[in-house]
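haha ok so turns out i had the wrong file open the whole time. this is the CORRECT one, sorry everyone. sequence first:
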Amino acid sequence: MELRSIYWFRNDLRLSDNLSLNKALDNSKYILFLFVDDESNRQHTSWEFMRTDTHRETFIYQGISSLDKALKSYGHSLHVLKGNTVEILNKIVKEHHIDSIFCEEIVASEENEQIKVLKKLNVNIKSIFQSSLFNVKQLPFDIKNMPDVFTKFRKCMDLEKIEPNNPEQLSDNIKNILPINFNSPKITVKKIHRHKGSSFPIYIDNFMGGELNAMENIKKYFQSNLPQSYKDTRNNLIGINFSTKFSPWLALGFISPRQIYAYLKHYELKFLANESTYWIFFELLWRDFFRFIFIKYGDKFFYKSGLGLNPVKINHNAKNLEAWIKGKTSNSFINAGMIELYKTGFLSNRMRQIVASYLVNELSCDWRSGASWFESQLIDYDVYSNYGNWAYIAGCGTDPRGGRHFNIEKQRKIYDPDGIYQQIWNKS
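then structure:
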């Protein structure tokens, strides 16, 4: 039987260490590589924000353009279509006599619904959950018994001394598999406004989206001395080198966490293992934690009360939300962060926590409105980490202390004592 398949790229826009892609290549004779820019990306959320704003859209298209070039080196192309994902896939399956669609599994409500509808239409879907460092089957407990507190999860993993699986190479079958003839529009990438204060300048060649840039930057990072001081600098607010900057490439799957871990272990064996290098692993583990918690709790993360583990009273003030978004609150430190986010699509991890705490605790706004704004703006938006972190700050998630209330003035004195950060963004 001549198996005809679609490989549907979702948040796994890479060829290497892509388990689902390899499965497709090893079980097909003909294949069509597809990315669907769903119509929902240009619609507004329930909070009236554009689902995917300019910066992330540009970063995505930089990456899919790079992926198309990589596929062309093997005699294939990436076909990019815009519209309703389910309708597009169903139409292609029928018109091109497709046997199977292979894809990454994403455990979130809208993505799950797409798969359910396709299955109801008798489309054969084969998916693999592959965005985590550890495989779900490696966990030393059933997912329903997943610890609700990160520290307990981390200690369980440390105690069992579980190691992530090694990254997989791209299957050699890509050299032999035949393309399915298909016409699609040319991929175009928008130009983005340059802002020299950006900590992740996606208008610079080596910071653009794509697997090649991701690999080159990660190699460069682990060839430097930066991993030795990561824990000391990671909470800084200004510059390119204060943190790893892996998150944008990770969020869209231009690189996998397993690949980063492999580089990290090589660095530790060759140069140095210290508290800072452990902290890089620590952050990857946090990322996994939110993924596994999402599998356990599902759509509860989108409820007003979140997971409901802590009693929380939530108010909302629409005028305060608007002032926060526009960087026009009474606090110039907060305003600087919100202006940076809007102008660049990026914000340091520390500043994300500070502005989130301010919205929830000082401005009395629904935490989900802030999560939705981050979804709209961030180039490294990741449904698991974004909603997991926001719920954590608001006391609606997994924080055993019932949320985080930052002293904003104290944070300003620690991280912007000379007001340089505020000068950069409040005058921009």
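Residues 132-164+207-297 form a domain with the Serine Threonine Protein Phosphatase 5, Tetratricopeptide repeat fold (CATH 1.25.40.80).
again sry for the mixup
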